[in-house]
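Re: that backbone. Tokens:
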């Protein structure tokens, strides 16, 4: 057992960088959003809310949350999807803000957003509409690029062409490719927006299969550097009365190698919204909605499933791979063992504000 003196000395050495190789020097925190305009920092190890901040301006619910690579700032879609606010996670001060709409142009950010690995640029998928006297003119979708150093009042430094219906943006580990998930998966040039490659998803040509359906607006890939999402599809060679005609699978994209896999793991028996990969057992995946599922992604098999006390939309995982966290929807974050799926704890957010569809992200500080 460490004495208070030893614990203090250990912490001081960590802060001084003398124990930089020791993993425990970097403490993990969960970030979530709450209605109408709140940002919450959670200490999952202590099972408590560490800090709560108010996002300036109007809004009914925070959307996508993207932490800066150093874990100091959270970029949040807010203001009825028409702004991004960057909140300092220590002080709660707004240190970045980009308001999209102006003049007769109404611009919404529909979920997809990511920050470059060096933290210098923020990429936001936008849907603009021109408000004319007698009509609304739908304009081309785009990705607006902002310099994070431009702070409050930031304006786009580039507007990149982008396919419609993008739900997730995810940078490759080396920053050279911006992956964009829509009806298909696109590898974009982050400088020009040019589509370098299209990986077929909805438009796959898998024999005896119909097109897969994906509903995913939760970008929780930071722990394993693998983006994952459930998909649902049907067999065209089987009658619809056959239970094995309907399949659930997982799509995984390794953000280091670019390897994409789509593999069925069960006859469809549950609704799933979001998923996360275990950073210590990369073939192990967890997914959530009204149930928490543990999936063998490599073997294409459901390992275990447990009922949850209520619906959860979003999910994340500890860096050591031992605990999985479920959030979104209500005002708590559930803590589960990745080994047994036993419920280990629950973190309540004061006042019981609804998290809605806010991302559940992990930072290390």
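Recovered sequence:
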């Amino acid at each position: 057992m460490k004495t208070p003196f030893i614990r203090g000395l250990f912490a001081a050495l960590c802060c001084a960088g003398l124990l930089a190789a020791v993993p425990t020097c970097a403490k993990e925190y969960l970030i979530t959003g709450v209605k109408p305009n709140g940002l919450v920092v959670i200490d999952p190890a202590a099972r408590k809310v560490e800090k709560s901040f108010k996002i300036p301006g109007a809004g009914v619910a925070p959307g996508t949350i993207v932490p800066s690579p150093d874990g100091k700032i959270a970029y949040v879609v807010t203001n009825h999807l028409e702004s991004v606010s960057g909140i300092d996670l220590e002080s709660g001060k707004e240190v970045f803000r980009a308001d999209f709409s102006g003049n007769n142009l109404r611009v919404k950010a529909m979920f997809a957003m990511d920050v470059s690995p060096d933290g210098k640029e923020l990429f936001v998928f936008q849907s603009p509409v021109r408000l004319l006297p007698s009509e609304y003119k739908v304009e081309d979708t785009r990705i607006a690029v902002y310099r994070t150093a431009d702070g409050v009042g930031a304006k786009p430094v580039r507007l990149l062409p982008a396919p419609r219906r993008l739900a997730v943006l995810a940078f490759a580990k080396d920053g050279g490719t911006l992956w964009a998930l829509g009806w298909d998966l696109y590898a974009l040039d982050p400088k020009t927006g040019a589509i370098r490659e299209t990986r077929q998803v909805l438009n796959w040509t898998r024999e005896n299969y119909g097109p897969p359906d994906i509903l995913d607006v939760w970008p929780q890939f930071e722990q394993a550097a693998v983006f994952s999402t459930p998909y649902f599809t049907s067999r065209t060679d089987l009658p619809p009365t056959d239970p094995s005609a309907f399949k659930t699978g997982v799509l995984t994209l390794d953000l280091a190698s670019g390897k994409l896999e789509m593999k069925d793991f069960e006859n469809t028996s549950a609704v799933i919204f979001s998923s996360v990969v275990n950073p210590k057992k990369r073939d192990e995946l967890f997914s959530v909605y009204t149930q928490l599922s543990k999936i063998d992604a490599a073997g294409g098999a459901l390992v275990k499933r447990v009922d949850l006390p209520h619906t959860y939309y979003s999910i994340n995982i500890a860096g050591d791979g031992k605990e999985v966290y479920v959030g979104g929807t209500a005002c708590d974050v559930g803590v589960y063992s990745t080994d047994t799926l036993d419920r280990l704890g629950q973190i309540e957010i004061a006042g019981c504000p609804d998290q809605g569809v806010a991302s559940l992200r992990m930072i290390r500080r």
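The longest strand covers residues 105-115. DSSP finds one helix and 28 strands in the chain.
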